[in-house]
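Human:
Take a look at this sequence-structure pair and walk me through the tokens.
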Amino acid sequence: MRHRIVLASMIGVLCAVSAGFQGCVTESKDAAKRDVAGPYQTWDDVIKRWIGGQATDLYVELGPPNLHPHQLDNGEIQMVWDFGIDRMPGQADAYNLLPLYGGGVNCQIHFFSDQKGTILRGERVGCD
């Protein structure tokens, strides 16, 4: 009996890890349409590129938001990247695709998605 419980627990953990890993690694079909041809020229270009895209793909490019995403009263989910504080980098950082900025960084990008994770709009705070 004890052997079955341990075996069932191990199988459950392996399935959860496998499902989680697969979900983290794969990108949606929409991501291919959003491949960057070169570095972003402005922060507005970053925002425009992601309107209509998926939040999961955005997380791959920018890294996870460093301020906790939260649901607004209208049902939208607000995600905030603050480039002035330490954050987990994404692919855009790895390939130096983000707009260049000086030493006094005061830049936040706010994205808003629906419940399905589709980016509806974005705005920048600072980033001048």
Remarks:
- The longest helix spans residues 2-25.
- Residues 31 and 103 are 31 Å apart (CA to CA).
- The chain is about 40% helix and 20% strand.
